[in-house]
């Protein structure tokens, strides 16, 4: 889906992954509203409808349905971005999945899929975007981490561990860019429970976390987008409760955080 997006444009180009719904879709809309053209990605066919809705706001949009859990999917997406022949001004690396259950009970194939998407594809796209941006010394990246990155995730162990990797990688790269005096910025978006399809897809509907209050996806996206534009290193979004949870995580021992996470993530009998 495109409107002469390969032709010379005054609008900057942005990439958003996981853009068929939830935070990613809201981020795509914000980019369009702020004058960006877009490449949007998701593994499901809903990305086509999402692209049409974003395009209705005046942006030129390319929709790429590709599974980022695979090396081929990452390569296909990046090939589409590079094929436009335009500099990538911004990237929101947002795609991610989770799964409920004790580590000994989950299927290894499902665990591996979480790591491939949340860890491998995030790192791959971050590297590809930053190599392109730092060559021009211009660009902004928003990486969707999670408040879960700050705590051991009993009954959601692989997901939390994957987000800890993402947060650590993001903060390390931020320091490297600062050391080089680069104008390129990387921002970590750290949401708490958010109104998206994540909980249903992860099998968390029968947990206290899944049934508890959640932040609206549009507000989480807005805070992340604004932090990215401001070049901030991280933003905990969106509610005061989520921000309080992040503050508590900075001082509580890991064993206490793991026990607390068990209470909210353990499936109810």
- The beta-strand count equals 7
Biggest sheet layout: 7 strands, parallel
Counting DSSP H or I runs of 4 or more residues, the number of helices is: 10
Poorly predicted runs of 5 or more residues: none
Q: Which strand-content bin applies to the residues?
A: 5-15%
Kindly report how far apart the N and C termini lie: 46 Å
Write structural notes for this entry:
The chain has 269 residues and is α/β, with parallel strands linked by helices. The chain has one domain (13-265): NAD(P)-binding Rossmann-like Domain (Rossmann fold). It is built from ten helices and seven strands. The chain has helices spanning 22-33, 46-55, 71-83, 108-136, 157-180, 198-201, 208-211, 217-230, 240-249, 254-265; strands at 13-17, 37-42, 61-65, 88-93, 140-144, 185-191, 234-237. Strands 3-2-1-4-5-6-7 form a seven-stranded parallel beta sheet, with helices on both faces. Helix 2 (46-55) links the parallel strand 2 and strand 3. Helix 1 runs parallel beside helix 2, helix 1 (22-33) crosses helix 8 and helix 4 (108-136) packs parallel to helix 5 (157-180). The longest helix is centred in the middle third of the chain and has 29 residues, at 108-136. It is globular, with a radius of gyration of 18 Å. The mean pLDDT is 91.
């Amino acid at each position: 889906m495109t409107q002469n997006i390969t032709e010379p444009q005054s609008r900057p180009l942005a990439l958003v992954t996981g853009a068929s719904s939830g935070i990613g879709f809201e981020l795509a809309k914000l980019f369009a509203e702020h004058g960006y053209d877009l490449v949007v990605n998701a593994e499901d066919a809903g990305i086509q409808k999402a692209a049409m809705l974003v395009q209705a706001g005046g942006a030129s949009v390319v929709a790429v349905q590709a599974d980022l859990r695979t090396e081929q999917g990452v390569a296909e997406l990046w090939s589409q971005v590079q094929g436009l022949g335009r500099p990538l001004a911004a990237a929101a690396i947002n795609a991610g999945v989770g799964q409920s259950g004790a580590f000994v009970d989950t299927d290894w194939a499902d665990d591996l899929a979480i790591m491939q998407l949340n860890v491998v594809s995030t790192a791959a796209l971050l590297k590809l975007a930053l190599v392109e941006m730092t060559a021009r010394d211009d660009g902004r990246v928003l990486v969707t981490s999670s408040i879960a990155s700050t705590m051991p995730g009993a009954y959601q162990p692989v997901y939390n561990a994957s987000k800890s990797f993402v947060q650590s990688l993001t903060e390390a790269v931020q320091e490297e860019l600062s050391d080089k005096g680069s104008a390129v910025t990387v921002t970590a978006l750290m949401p708490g429970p958010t109104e998206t399809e994540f909980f249903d897809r992860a099998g968390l509907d029968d947990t206290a976390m899944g049934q508890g209050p959640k932040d609206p996806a549009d507000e989480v996206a807005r805070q992340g987008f604004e932090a990215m534009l401001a070049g901030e290193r991280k933003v905990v979004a969106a509610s005061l409760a989520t921000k309080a949870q992040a503050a508590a995580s900075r001082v509580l021992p890991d064993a206490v955080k793991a026990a607390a996470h068990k209470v909210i993530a353990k499936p109810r009998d």
